[in-house]
UniProtKB/TrEMBL annotation:
It is found in: Chromosome, Centromere, Kinetochore. Component of the RZZ complex. GO terms for biological process: cell division; mitotic spindle assembly checkpoint signaling; protein localization to kinetochore. It comes from Anopheles merus. This is Protein zwilch. It comes from the Eukaryota. Keywords: Cell cycle, Cell division, Centromere, Chromosome, Kinetochore, Mitosis. Its main location: nucleus.
């Protein structure tokens, strides 16, 4: 654990010519050390000249007399506003953005320029000489690699003991060149390590090997195993531990446009928009009553919707048993999307979402209530939503026709929408044999929060029975009370019982379930090992979900887990490794030397700062950028 806050302040005051940050390590240090503890990192801050030049290229030019107004002038020629040269530069900018995604470093790390090796060494030596109370952790300095050993990083680990005697562990990272992957042997690496350890240290025969393989552009396998003896090779052992990492490209919410499950994400978007409408109406904002944008492109006039509602409630529907004979997830997604709706409330929800305005929605629901009271209803709703309870109570002459006001039409519709979408997801996961979704557990709040929004509760008395101990009622009963109180509430079913926090939790969880479905679709297309799907669901749903809005601020969503699966090992046998990490050590009574050989098919350091490392053309089609990390510790 790192505790270097005081050391960081000391560095900033004593060595003002350099830049320091006390934060989690850059990507290349994490790759070498596999440690996420905070470090002090010394470098030279520079501007990302590529990005800044791109911004200058696309920044609109103003005349000397321009006052910087945000108003638009639509009289100019678009051909004069952006020249051909600027257009080409904008295309180059796009190409740079696409290529930067493939880099192993981040955009911020493009601004961390190295120090000279001599300056880095003198900085660490000056710190050792200081008389001060220090913490514990690691200090890293980025070096330019122009010395004879091509050092790119220097490390000093500090440890303050209780008696103030300071112990230091030193580390150095060297770039050892670009080599064909098939020319690197474990025996060569052992010889390099032994040469550095010298005769006075005893070599430990236990060698740790980690190897990464790309099964897909977004799917990586990490295989880890220990080997003994100097005659070992890089052949994957059958007892290797497997860790799968999948980065699903969320692309700030744009993923749905090319997804087979786009329909279900659109349903979730519709529910989120309904929630916003309810919040607007409760806050007395006119936007809550604006033209309906929750129905999508298929809006219809009120008379058509009334006729559709009348047919749903008054006409017999021939129901045939549904059998899903699909062996793949993607086929199941398509079948559920195209399934014939048989539940009365799902059919009513499907009809009501065609309303083009708040007034039409209110009128359509009022029409349903009048039909329930005065007509011969053939199809009686059976699910547990409040909307269904209201219709059933009116059919049985237990309730007068209610008058909907404010956000109540959207509240009733929102509850039905949640019920339908949950049923869709549950059917996909169950019928595909993946996992049994338990929304009752998923919708339980993880942290009790007593603070409520001023718009979180309804106009009538609020019932908290659904916040108590878990009951046997369905998870679709979003706002209703426990079953034991039904007789008391037969003639007073609440029209408005909206809980903002509860709705937000459901949106977040359903967004998580949808991202899980997207992960499974990607796994099926690239890996197709059904035996791992249940484990994936269990691990992914055990995490705290992102907020629904946060999905639109993310570039990727990471799924990472360890598993024992022989089929994945067999897939890795036929794929060339994209990275490798080999760790070995030697020790005597006084010191221990640990060497990490890290090899990657791509450079891990920004190439703009290390032009001398540019790769020359090799005969091999598969080469490794090789780095050696020595760490010597006093015992």
């Amino acid at each position: 654990m790192s505790d270097l806050a005081n050391v960081y302040q000391l560095f900033r005051s004593k060595f003002e010519d350099n830049d320091f940050q006390y934060y989690y390590p850059p990507s290349y240090i994490r790759s070498l050390t596999e440690c996420d503890d905070k470090i002090i990192f010394a470098f030279r801050k520079v501007q990302n000249h590529i990005l800044s030049s791109e911004m200058d290229a696309v920044r609109p030019k103003q005349s000397p007399n321009s006052n910087g107004s945000a108003s638009l002038d639509l009289t100019g020629s678009p051909l004069r506003d952006v020249s051909f040269e600027q257009f080409e530069e904008m295309n180059l900018s796009k190409e740079y953005h696409e290529s930067s995604v493939q880099n192993l470093w981040t955009v911020d790390e493009e601004t961390y320029a190295p120090l000279s090796t001599e300056k880095a060494r003198s900085l660490l030596q000056a710190f050792i000489s200081l008389e001060c109370r220090i913490g514990r952790g690691s200090i890293w300095v980025l070096c330019c690699g122009t010395d004879s050993e091509q050092k790119v990083l220097l490390q000093l680990s500090v440890n303050a003991a209780s008696n103030n005697q300071r112990q230091f562990t030193r580390g150095v990272v060297r770039f050892s060149g670009v080599q064909p992957s098939n020319s690197i042997t474990l025996g060569q690496l052992i010889d390099i390590h032994r040469q550095r350890a010298g005769e006075g240290m005893k070599f430990s025969p236990k060698i740790q090997i980690q190897q990464w393989c790309k099964l897909h552009a977004q799917i990586t396998l990490r295989l880890s195993w220990n080997t003994m003896g100097e005659g070992s090779t890089f052949a994957i052992e059958r007892n290797a531990r497997v860790r799968l990492s999948q980065e699903f490209p969320v692309n700030n919410g744009a993923f749905s446009r090319s997804s087979p499950a786009e329909y279900f994400w659109q349903q979730l978007q519709r529910l989120a928009m309904m929630r916003e409408r309810i919040m607007d109406i409760r806050a007395n904002r006119e936007s809550g009553y604006a033209r309906n944008d929750v129905c999508g492109e298929a809006e219809m006039d009120l008379e058509y919707i009334k006729q559709k509602v009348n047919n749903i409630l008054s006409s017999f529907l021939e129901v045939e048993p549904v059998t899903y004979n699909s062996s793949t997830i993607i086929d199941m997604v398509s079948l559920v999307q195209k399934r014939k709706l048989t539940d009365v409330m799902e059919r009513l929800y499907d009809a009501l979402t065609l309303c083009s305005s708040y007034e039409d929605l209110k009128a359509a629901i009022d029409y349903i209530f009048h039909l329930s009271t005065h007509s011969n209803i053939v199809n009686v709703p059976t699910n547990g939503t409040r909307f269904a309870q209201l219709i059933l109570a009116m059919i049985q002459d237990r309730l007068a026709i209610p008058l909907l006001t404010g956000s109540e039409p959207y509240e009733l519709l929102l509850e039905c929408g949640f019920s339908k979408l949950m049923n869709d997801y549950r059917t996909i996961f169950t019928e595909a044999g993946i996992y049994e979704l338990e929304f009752e557990k998923l919708f339980q709040p993880q942290v009790t929060n007593t603070r409520k929004s001023r718009y979180a509760t309804g106009n009538g008395p609020q019932l908290d029975t659904h916040h108590g101990a878990p009951s046997k009622r369905s998870a679709t009963q979003l706002f209703q009370s426990a079953a034991g109180e039904e007789r008391v509430r037969e003639k007073s079913i609440l029209l408005s019982n909206f809980d903002e926090d509860e709705v937000k939790l459901r949106l977040n969880r359903l967004a998580q379930v949808h991202l899980l479905l997207e992960h499974l679709l990607l796994l099926e297309s690239a890996v197709n090992v059904p035996s791992i799907y249940g484990r994936v669901c269990e691990l992914y749903l055990s995490r705290a979900p992102y907020s629904y809005g946060e999905v639109y601020n993310r570039r990727t969503d990471l799924l990472e887990f360890e598993l024992d699966e022989f089929m994945l090992l067999r897939k890795a046998d036929h794929v060339l490794p994209c990275a490798r990490r080999v760790t070995m050590s030697s020790a005597n009574m006084l010191q221990k030397l640990e060497t990490v050989f890290y090899q990657n098919a791509k450079p891990i350091l920004p190439g703009r700062f290390y032009p001398q490392f540019e790769c020359k053309e090799l005969d091999s089609k598969h080469e490794f950028w090789c780095y050696e990390y020595d760490r010597i510790e006093s015992l």
